[in-house]
C-alpha cells in the first residue's frame, strides 16, 4: 500500500524534514516500515505505515540518527505511525492490530499506572519513560 505517512514522490527524507527542517530532494531514498518485526512489517505495509529515508537516516553506522541504530529515533517514527494510524483508521485499535502501543502515553492503563506512581513519589521511574523531544514530554510530576 502507498504510505499514508510520507509521499515518496516528494523525494524528501522523513527524518531530515522532521529533525532538521531539510526539505531538499535526496537522490537515494530507502523505504522504512514504521512498525518493526516480521509480522508488524507486513502490517505496516498493509496500512501504509512507512516512510522514506536517506541512507544516513536509515542504516546503522552511517549516522547517530539512523533509525536502525537509535532507539529514540525508532520510537519517534513508531509514535508518528500510531498517531497517523489512529487518524486514518479511527474504527480500529492500534494495539489490537500491532499487539502493542508505540508508547506508554497511548496506553490508557499504563498511563494511569505511571501517573499513580508519580503521585506516590517514584521519580526514579523516569528512566523507563519514552521521551522524544516535544512529541512525548515527561509527565509534569517528573519535570524539575
Short description:
This protein is mainly alpha-helical. The protein contains six helices and two strands, in the order αβαβαααα.
Write the layout of secondary structure elements.
Blueprint (H helix, E strand, L loop, with lengths): L13 H7 L9 E4 L4 H10 L2 E4 L1 H4 L12 H18 L5 H5 L9 H12 L25
Antiparallel strand pairs: 1-2
Radius of gyration: 16 Å
Strand share of the residues? 5-15%
Query: What is the H/E order?
Result: HEHEHHHH
How many separate domains make up the residues? 2
Task: Describe the protein in words.
- The protein is mostly helical and 144 residues long.
- It has two domains: 1-102, no CATH class; 103-144, no CATH class.
- Helices cover 39% and strands 6% of the residues.
- The protein is built from six helices and two strands, in the order H-E-H-E-H-H-H-H.
- It has helices spanning 14-20, 38-47, 55-58, 71-88, 94-98, 108-119, and strands spanning 30-33, 50-53.
- The chain has a two-stranded antiparallel ribbon.
- The radius of gyration is 16 Å and the shape is globular.
- The chain starts with 13 loop residues before the first helix and ends in a 25-residue tail after the last helix.
- The model is unreliable at 120-139 (pLDDT under 50).
